[in-house]
């Protein structure tokens, strides 16, 4: 049940209120939040984290404010600063670690369990779970559950960097370097002008076509029924959150050989992995029947971007619900630090995270960290009961692409 806090009339005169941004208003449901997993290379010290967050995290206004309803402004939610005890937001479960047979599975189940519990809206919208459990990729983990109105992936990554220090230099802050751009050679010729004009025509035409398709989607154009599409009408979701770590060098190899961007590689391997997964769902059909079925499937993803000041949040919310309700997938990626960092003296091994938003049964998020890329899947198990198979198909797709790229490079070297 959704919990709401209402301001009393007397409180309105004494409290300082900050209105929510349009995006935060759209994401004010207690069921919309982000679950982040930090894997550490050492055992974690809970008291060190508590003291560290007292001097960093709660200095961010939204981490020391709670969301309440202001009845004087048509029931709009607002941020109200409150006094806060970090200890009330940190959970250190008392677990029998030596008797946990499969730590990786235990962590996955624990993460999925907290992902299925609505956020407590009566206090600042974040909570932390510290587990001194050794997994395949870490000696201990920190699970952070943060409401989506507090921040998105990019803002939370920036906050992580502000709280962290370089592992190589514990006194130095780290900055997330922007992607490098290739220098553009100055060329002025008739051929260059013609090519530039043709490029502009293609971009304009493609933009118009995609805008027209977007309008159709907001009105009525839904994805066709497929094994990955949830039912937004039933209102029930059972989340399973998993992640897989792959080599960033493999992605860069494909990127550099094919002269494209990292985003292109991630989208390409995702598309190929989804195609491989869907193919397995029609194994009982002949090849001709399977091909015919797959060709008729309309499968699209929604990529959320930041919204700047808007005047009509109802229109924005309705627009978002239609987009997410008529598509099968939510997709995003976040660029992490290029060098290893430590959080309050604990070297980080990896950072994983999934945003549970929208009505789709499938959310795919990529996060980079040094020489790793973490594939994150949040799935509704009532629609997708085998998320590990789906993740395997995405990883296998990258291996196939990498193999083809290496073969191409070898052929070019021979020529």
From TrEMBL:
Superkingdom: Eukaryota
Annotated Gene3D superfamilies: Chloramphenicol acetyltransferase-like domain (3.30.559.10)
Pathway assigned in UniProt: Glycerolipid metabolism; triacylglycerol biosynthesis; Lipid metabolism
Localization, UniProt: Cell membrane; Endoplasmic reticulum membrane
Catalyzed chemical reaction(s): a long chain fatty alcohol + a fatty acyl-CoA = a long-chain alcohol wax ester + CoA; an acyl-CoA + a 1,2-diacyl-sn-glycerol = a triacyl-sn-glycerol + CoA
Domain O-acyltransferase WSD1 C-terminal: 286-402
Topology of this chain in the membrane: Single-pass membrane protein
Pfam family membership, one: WS_DGAT_cat
Keyword set includes Ribonucleoprotein: no
Alphabetically ordered keywords of this record: Acyltransferase, Endoplasmic reticulum, Membrane, Transferase, Transmembrane, Transmembrane helix
Limits of the O-acyltransferase WSD1-like N-terminal domain: 48-173
TM region positions: 190-212
Family classification: In the N-terminal section; belongs to the long-chain O-acyltransferase family.
PANTHER family, sorted: O-ACYLTRANSFERASE (WSD1-LIKE) FAMILY PROTEIN, WAX ESTER SYNTHASE_DIACYLGLYCEROL ACYLTRANSFERASE 1
Protein name as it appears in the record: Diacylglycerol O-acyltransferase
Native source species: Brassica napus
